[in-house]
Design a protein that fits this description.
Layout lengths: L2 H11 L18 E5 L14 E5 L4 E2 L20 E2 L12 E5 L19 E2 L5 H8 L4 E4 L8 E4 L7 E4 L30 H9 L8 H10 L8 E4 L14 H8 L6
Antiparallel strand pairs: 1-5, 2-5, 3-4, 6-10, 7-10, 8-9
Helix pairs in contact: 3-4
Length: about 260
């Protein structure tokens, strides 16, 4: 069975929630499907198979233009940004999936750092950006669902405000909604609670002349996200969460609170 078929088979049978699956002592593990924290290193995945804990976060920075939102450079993609939590920075993040080593085709795999992992992507990207990173004909499938704790009321949306997924821009004093301190308990699926990965990225990166560590650290915080912006490139035509009847946690809050225009 091909990598793509294996991934879709898992997605098709189990809609992966935010809470990691509890692993039994000696189960018949699938080729993919377990949530993991890449920052946990070698202990992140079961050791009964040769698993890789692969980041599903494509966040990236242009170190010469910190305000630009750029696509990640995975060598075999058309992105230009330095990945913050994937590829060579795979072990800095807290969001990933255990993927059996050797199951990802070489032309669809990360080639530096987390070699053999699938390429992360952002399901909210436009079609041209998905094609630039994933390749023509590929899709970007969200890996886990949003949880209600990932949503915040944005008064600028809809008729009288709408709930939407939070981002790093909503951290207090960053000019967004000022609704988060990005602590571990603030949200359910947020990347890099407490910002430890961002701090490590800055400390390990050679910065261009005139670019300060504090500026890069803040730019990294602004790229932090919850589940709606994390996924994997797949050679398929449909993703599980693209089901027309699917309603995510933020939309459920909008419906429950009678919010219109969302």
């Amino acid at each position: 069975m091909s990598y793509w078929t294996k991934v879709l088979a898992v997605y098709g049978s189990v809609l992966i929630g935010a809470v990691s699956l509890t692993l039994a002592c000696d189960p018949d593990y699938p080729s993919t499907g377990f949530r993991c924290r890449p920052s946990d290193g070698a202990s992140a995945c079961p050791d009964s198979k040769d698993y890789l804990c692969c980041s599903d976060d494509p966040a990236a920075l242009d170190l010469n233009d910190l305000e630009a939102y750029v696509l990640p450079n995975y060598q075999n993609s058309n992105g230009t940004g330095t990945p913050l939590f994937s590829a060579s920075a795979n072990n800095l993040g807290t969001s990933g999936m255990c993927i059996e080593s050797g199951t990802v085709p070489s032309d669809a795999a990360i080639l530096t750092g987390a070699i053999g992992c699938p390429m992360p992507c952002n399901p909210t990207w436009g079609d041209s950006d998905i094609s630039a990173v994933c390749g023509e004909g590929a899709v970007c499938c969200q890996t886990i669902e949003l949880e209600p704790e990932d949503c915040a009321l944005d008064p600028a949306l809809g008729d009288n405000g709408c709930y939407r997924p939070v981002t790093g821009n909503d951290i207090t004093n960053f000019g967004g909604l000022n609704v988060s301190t990005w602590l571990t308990t603030d949200h359910a699926t947020h990347q890099d609670p407490l910002g430890k990965g961002c701090k490590t990225f800055v400390a390990a990166t050679t910065l261009p002349d005139g670019v300060s560590e504090s500026a890069v650290e803040e730019a990294c915080y602004r790229r932090l996200s919850v589940a709606d912006q994390r996924g994997f490139c797949l050679g398929a035509t449909a993703c599980p969460l693209d089901n027309p009847g699917y309603v995510d946690a933020c939309d459920e809050l909008n419906i429950a609170n009678g919010l219109s225009g969302c």
